[in-house]
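Incident log, structure service

09:12 report received: a user says their structure output differs between two submissions of the same chain.
09:20 pulled the input from the user's history:
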Amino acid sequence: MSHAQEPSSVPEDDLAPTQTAGYKVGQQKTIDELAQLDAEDESLARWKASLGIGAGAGAGAGPSSSSGSGPNVEILGLSLTAPTRAQPIQLDLTDSDKVKDLKKSPIVIKEGAEYNVELKFKVNHGLVSGLKYIQAVRRLGATVDKLESMIGSYGPSPEPVVKKFVTEEAPTGMLARSGTYAVRSRVIDDDGKVYVDFEWAFKLAKEW
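09:34 re-ran on a clean worker, output below:
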């Protein structure tokens, strides 16, 4: 998904992933190559099967899955769920025109409410390693919150994956309710490949 033409209200530095000391990104391998590694290791075989790799991985795990069309990872939507709200707030990320308008139409979050961000995505082909979600929130030109969470590694599957992140609590008070919060969200993998990078916004209110 391409960046918007106008300057971002959330700078690039806010989206920089944390680097793990001593960690090095491994050489990219195909699904067929991974399926042949340590074939006698039962625990590794179960892990690979969970990613859709190798024998016993189920439909869609064969060689044809690694050469399909479309992006490796298709980001379908972002949702906010809360115990105090009957229905989630859903952001559709499949329409690029709608995505561009997200930051112009702030969603409403109840002050002091606990909520979770959920990401819905699908791996169409290949193996993606070390997917990570990064979210930065800015208000009045300053970063007020950053969420960085590991999503994991996945092989191709026709079924979407829904990843729920840690519970967050919205600020409270009259000052917090004034103005708009700018949010920039990004999904990135171990190799630094960005699968989605978009902006949205929210306002705080006394009720949803």
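09:41 both user submissions now match this output. Likely a transient worker issue. Closing.
09:42 reviewer note: The CA atoms of residues 116 and 166 lie 6 Å apart. The mean pLDDT is 81.
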